[in-house]
Amino acid sequence: MEFDLSLEEAGFRDEVKAFLEAELTEEVRGGMFVDTPARVAFVDKLAAKGWLGMGFPEKYGGSKKPIALAQFILNVELELAHAPIVGKNVGVIANTIFHNGSEEMKDEFLPKVFKNECQWALSYTEPQAGTDLAALQCKCEDKGDHWLVNGTKRFITSAHFADYHWVAVRTDPDAQKHKGVSIIIMDADAEGLTYTPQWCVGSTGAERTNEVFYDNVKVPKNRLVGEINKGFIYLMQALDYERFAIISFAARVRRFNKVAEWVKEAEFGGKKLSDDPAIRSKFATLATRVEIGTMLEKMCICVAAERVPNTEAAMNKAWASTIGTEIANLALDAMGPYGYLWDGSEHAPLEGEMVDQYLMHGHSRVAAAGVDTSKTIIARRLLGLPDPLGKPFLPNQAK
Ligand SMILES: Cc1cc2nc3c(=O)[nH]c(=O)nc-3n(C[C@H](O)[C@H](O)[C@H](O)COP(=O)(O)OP(=O)(O)OC[C@H]3O[C@@H](n4cnc5c(N)ncnc54)[C@H](O)[C@@H]3O)c2cc1C
Fold this sequence. Notes:
The protein is built from 11 helices and 9 strands. The strands form 3 sheets. Strands 2-3-7-6 form a 4-stranded antiparallel β-sheet, with no helix packed on it. A 3-stranded mixed β-sheet has the order 1-4-5, with helices on one face. A two-stranded antiparallel sheet has the order 8-9.
């Protein structure tokens, strides 16, 4: 089996690299969100290249894929360069609308996504509904000519700069809990929508999320995604996409490469760290595990050309989060006490990035299905193992 990129694929990768070399400024680098004018302008340039809508029909503003692995190569190169990624808008929103939305909805939103004319907040989590999303309570009532939404969401990452909220709501309070859920699209400036910052603290800064309040928010009828009360299935698909399009393995590759470069140079007590047999052995083992992650990510992208990746995405998610933790742990082991110095200290290796990753890895382990939940998906859907509690499992294999 040939693992290297073909000549054609390498040509596209070089084109992306050259683009990043020319366009990625320090002001843009370092964040995954499209939350500043400079980052929006950067993603506008990706859009102008036709790289946001690759593989989607032209009638919705999409463009032809130059090669089968174009999306994978683009994501990897964006992550390796620490540029903003496009996994949320394109990977999650556009794909879920494309598979489930009405023609009117596709016509309205897909071209905007592919032109980078809108940013989105994924609004799922509630005080009583995290991993167990089917427990969500945010109420959505049919008022004849509009929907009326009331509820509270928390940890919503992009709510303070989004144009639209992609909201999981309860449309049937009497149905079984996963059968009464729908998804609606809400304008971020709708009357009754307010938010307040909710900070998740790392060492080099805090990551902003938001608590969001929907207080009698009126939503037009045509903003319901797909069919009413089928939202849990769409939600599962959206999360399948999130498990590789946002939780990209390439981000782990970048971090691993950074730590490996640091180890090559580091000296303690006049000895090179890279000469230590224990360090060498640990890095070699981890390098192999990192390579497996790249293969899993590639598999997701290949499958996504045919159907919604499900068990593949769960494998990518579980592995990416596990390896992210292992990279942070190994880095801090290798750095010794210096590893715990934060940004601002001249002695902090890699500007404190690894201690930051160490503090944030708890989030990666629970976001978009925890490692445990991902393993449950693999056990039940891929291996066909029975549920210990005898619960039925929802089918989720929409094309
Ligand atoms: C920085 C950050 C950004 C976020 N951004 C968003 C966002 O943009 N939109 C959004 O909707 N949410 C967002 N979240 C919320 C995030 O998705 C939730 O934190 C996550 O779903 C876990 O929910 P919880 O915090 O209630 O933990 P819980 O669900 O209480 O889970 C706690 C632990 O128990 C484990 N666990 C729970 N149930 C099971 C089970 N059945 N089997 C095995 N293990 C289980 C979990 O894996 C986890 O380790 C964000 C969170 C953070 C920290």
